[in-house]
Amino acid sequence: MLNYTPIPLTRLQIGRQLPVDIWTPDGRLLLRRGQALQSEAHREMLATHQACMTETDAQAWKKSLERDMRLMRQAGVDMVAIAQAPMPAEILDTDYLEGRDVDGGWLDLQDILRSLLYQGAQAATPLPRLEGIEQKALTLLRHDPDECLFVLFQALPDLNLGYCATHALLSGVVCVLTADKLAQTDADQALLLRSALVMNIGMARPQDSLSRQHKPPDPTQRQIIAAHPPTSSDILRGFGINDDELLGIVQWHHTPDAATLHTGHLTSLRLLSLSDGLIAKMAPRISRAAMTPLGAAKSLVLESTPGTAVLRPAMAAVLGFYPPGTYVQLANGETAVVIKRGARANTPHVASIMNAAGMPLSKYVYHDSGTASNAIFKPLAGSVNIHVSLDKVRRLRLQHEI
Question: Could you please report the per-residue DSSP string of 301-360?
């Protein structure tokens, strides 16, 4: 789960915009960045809710405070006044950690990637940050691909986390797993991940806004959506990227059949396009429900074309009909979360989290859905109304050696 750090509430000034999101320790959003503390009563309310920020934001905000204090010392400000200095209202791009400095897991990485995508063309030192994110993601993925899928599919319905970054990471992970199944080289797999991370940098903030919008995109928004592949490619050129294969994959990821890349990287382009569309179908919006993973997998296979006939079944196979982190109803009426892929696409390992009456279980119960008594009755779209503990899932997997 995402790591949080307490907010220094006594250092917040009333009426001053906050440069970070404020959360509860269990991940509920209290204030969005750009909003302000309204009163002393508001401060007390935040204290009651144990207001926190992500570790990424905490490190960056600390750097900005240290810079302000250093400037105050240079200006001869009294040390007592410096010690009581309020938290800055602005965090510079250069205050954020590079990806290689991340010690946490997938949600910490998601937080850092979201910051980079939001900054877009104005991002400072983007290439070292992008390289660090990529290397960390590959390390985590190689270590435990099922936990990777579990965490990211759990994050996908949580629009407060920032859909753009979750979508990018999950699309990249699906690409890498599929490319590995197709015996593509490590270099091709890294190229796919790198392309997925930045394919939507040209519309990161609008992408998050659209996910929370109650109505379909208006004409202006549709224009942004249509223009974002070349916009993303232009931003990457501005970063100093001159890899024509990467730039081409990003530019044509919505229209792969119009690309002129050579055969090897046309396959990579088609993989990214398929993954991008697949994750979008399984992602909920305020304006529409998510497609079930089973429905998405069926559409993936049924919509096959000559150029994707080999790619689509491979992608469906690496995810299965019920990917880790998604929900199912068992034949016994219990609601379960998938915790690991199984020997076959339709028989994953699951953990019951709610009984047949819909009551949460304090102790998760492991089932192998390949047995008739624990068979899956149907998939469930989106999320359930309880918090699923990654720690409990880890312990269950360890206990049953799966």
Answer: HHT--TTTTTHHHHHHHHH-SS-TT-EEEETTS-EEEEEE--SSTT--EEEEEE-TTSPE
For the chain, what is the domain count? 3
315 shares a domain with 274: yes
| Residues 133 and 216 occupy one common structural domain | yes
pLDDT of res. 102: 61
Q: Cα separation of 164 and 394, whole Å? A: 27
Dump pLDDT digits (tens) for 60-119. 888 888 888 877 877 888 888 888 889 998 887 667 755 555 667 899 899 889 989 999
For residues 159 and 275, membership in a common domain is answered with: yes
91 falls within a domain: no
**Among 104, 230, 151, which residue's Cα sits nearest to residue 388?**
151
Instruction: State the alpha helices, DSSP H only, in 257-310.
Output: 263-282, 293-302
Q: Flag whether 89 is in a domain.
A: no
Average pLDDT, the chain: 90
**H or E stretch covering 193:** helix 186-198
Report the largest interatomic distance among the alpha carbons of the chain, rounded to a whole angstrom: 76
Tell me the per-residue pLDDT of 176-217, one tens digit each, with 9 for 90 and over.
999 999 999 898 999 999 999 999 999 999 998 888 888 888
The answer to whether position 308 is within a domain reads yes
Q: Which of 303, 319, 335 finishes a domain? A: 319
Q: In what order do the strands lie in the sheet with 327-330?
A: 360-368, 349-354, 335-340, 327-330, 376-380
What CATH code is carried by the domain that includes residue 160?
1.10.3210
Q: Do residues 164 and 240 both lie within one domain? A: yes
Let me know: does 89 contact 16? Beta carbons within 8 Å. Answer: yes
Please state which of the ranges 100-109, 345-354, 384-393 shows the lowest mean pLDDT: 100-109
Alpha carbons 156 and 392: distance in angstroms, whole number: 20
How many C-beta atoms lie closer than 10 Å to residue 40's C-beta? 9
Q: Pick the closest to residue 179 from 196, 192, 169, 166 (CA basis).
A: 192
pLDDT score at 231? 96
> 38 lies in which domain range?
4-83
SS3 state of residue 377: strand
Q: Is the pLDDT of residue 124 over 80?
A: no
- Please, what is the end-to-end C-alpha distance for the chain in angstroms? 20
Q: In sequence order, what are the residues at sequence separation of 6 or more whose Cβ sits closer than 8 angstroms to the Cβ of residue 226? A: none
